[in-house]
UniProtKB/TrEMBL annotation:
Gene Ontology biological process: phosphorelay signal transduction system
Keyword Phosphoprotein appears in the UniProt entry: yes
Protein name: Response regulator
Xref: SMART domains: REC (SM00448)
UniProt entry keywords in alphabetical sequence: Phosphoprotein
SUPFAM superfamilies the record matches: CheY-like (SSF52172)
Organism annotation: Candidatus Sulfobium mesophilum
Residues with PTM 4-aspartylphosphate: D51
Coiled coil: none
InterPro entries membership: Bact_response_regulator, CheY-like_superfamily, Sig_transdc_resp-reg_receiver
Domain Response regulatory, residue spans: 2-113
Cited PROSITE patterns: RESPONSE_REGULATORY
Amino acid sequence: MKILIVDDDEINLLLTKLELSDELWEVITASNGQEAMELFEIEKPDVVIVDVVMPGIDGITLLKKMKQIRPETPAAIFTGYDQKALSLPDEADAFVVKSSSYKELKEFVKRYAPKNK
């Protein structure tokens, strides 16, 4: 299974990649919206995890663009903001708050991941 993580914070991006790679998932990363769109079209990830606040294309706009191309791709908003501060866009399948524990994020991936990959 292939997961695309998008976050402009290099440390968060690396830590999240390491955590999800521990589950033996293939993890690809992008540090901005433009790079993410290119990888989304080329790599065709099974799951997408996107930060909200990024320079250029924000995470919500990015998810909308991705879902126009492949609406079946499960996507999570992965942010440090509380869900009460942001409304979950229709394009997102889950809202996961960043923390030192990646348990909730891994549960999202397991719940939405294609069963045959």
